[in-house]
Write a structure and sequence with these properties.
This protein starts with a strand and ends with a helix. The protein is globular, with a radius of gyration of 18 Å. It contains nine helices and 14 strands. Helix 1 runs parallel beside helix 9. Helix content is 34%, strand content 26%. It has a five-stranded parallel β-sheet with strand order 4-1-12-13-14, sandwiched between helices. By secondary structure, the chain is an alpha/beta fold.
Length: 271
């Protein structure tokens, strides 16, 4: 039975320049590999050591990138190692099989959203009317599934985020603040549901997971073992669970540590 490794990407395995957290003296900084270019500019990185670990992991387990990114945003990423047979985009809204959306899975997801939570248009309209243009840079709708704002973080009122979370909760939605983005995501739209489907298809006997944000909590809880870095929403809330390891590393070195843990667990003998 194969080992399935489902991992969030941004601020878990890959990092923007602003999120690298290179606190060591410059001569001791790790060598970095660019894994994403957008509009001719380098955007996301991992250490060269992490890149080799991910390549090794692709040979030892079924590696499934599991992201809130849209399909278009995900396809900008050029990860080292074997091309993943499965990938999960839009927080579980799209299951890619060899790079192509599984239409049956997407229909199941959209059916659940229609039945179980307020419509996207209601949430989008609330964000448009309640968010102050003083600190909002962009309004976005992702894959016709959820909405997010790009904000000036230093100007963002903390109380507004709390009020939005309460408003969304009553309508079956979740709010997550990640860097400069505020996500509003339907509760039935989960990474964990898509990961369970991949586990069923692959016959996985062990599921490992990692993530840093509130939107990754369900993914971590669904895994047999999980890891979270020392930064992000989950770390800020000191969130944990019995099968979850809270790592001390922050920034790009946390990504390297997570891959070491994945590889060690994937190679460990099992009964």
């Amino acid at each position: 039975m194969p080992v399935l490794v489902a991992s969030d990407l941004d601020r878990t395995l890959i990092y923007s320049a602003a999120a690298l957290a290179l606190t060591m003296p410059d001569p001791r900084a790790p060598r970095l590999l660019c894994v994403e270019v957008h509009e001719s500019r380098p955007l996301s990185f991992m250490t060269e050591t992490a890149a080799q670990l991910l390549t090794d992991l692709g040979d030892a387990a079924v590696f499934v990138p599991t992201t809130t990114r849209t399909r278009k945003q995900y396809q900008r990423i050029n990860l080292p190692g074997p091309a993943p047979a499965y990938a999960i985009c839009a927080n579980g809204g799209h299951l890619l099989v060899d790079g192509v959306t599984d239409a049956d899975w997407h229909r199941q997801v959209t059916g659940r959203l229609a039945d179980e939570c307020a419509p996207l248009e209601e949430v989008r309209a609330h964000l448009e009317t309640s968010a102050d243009p003083l600190w909002v840079r962009k309004h976005r709708v992702a894959e016709d599934l959820f909405a997010y704002l790009v904000v000036e973080r230093e100007l963002l009122p903390e109380e507004w985020v709390k009020e939005l979370a309460g408003w969304a909760e009553r309508r079956g939605w979740t709010v997550s603040l990640q860097g400069r983005k505020i996500y509003a995501v339907p509760k039935p739209l989960t990474k964990s549901a898509a990961v369970r489907e991949v586990a069923r298809r692959t016959g996985a006997g062990l599921t490992l997971a990692a993530g840093d944000s509130l939107l990754d909590a369900d993914l971590l809880l669904a895994a047999d073992r999980g890891w979270r870095p020392g930064h992000g929403e989950l770390a800020d809330d000191e969130w944990t669970a019995p099968a979850i390891t809270a790592l001390p590393e922050r920034g790009v070195l946390a990504g390297e540590r997570i891959l070491r843990e994945f590889l060690k667990a994937a190679r460990a003998p099992r009964a």
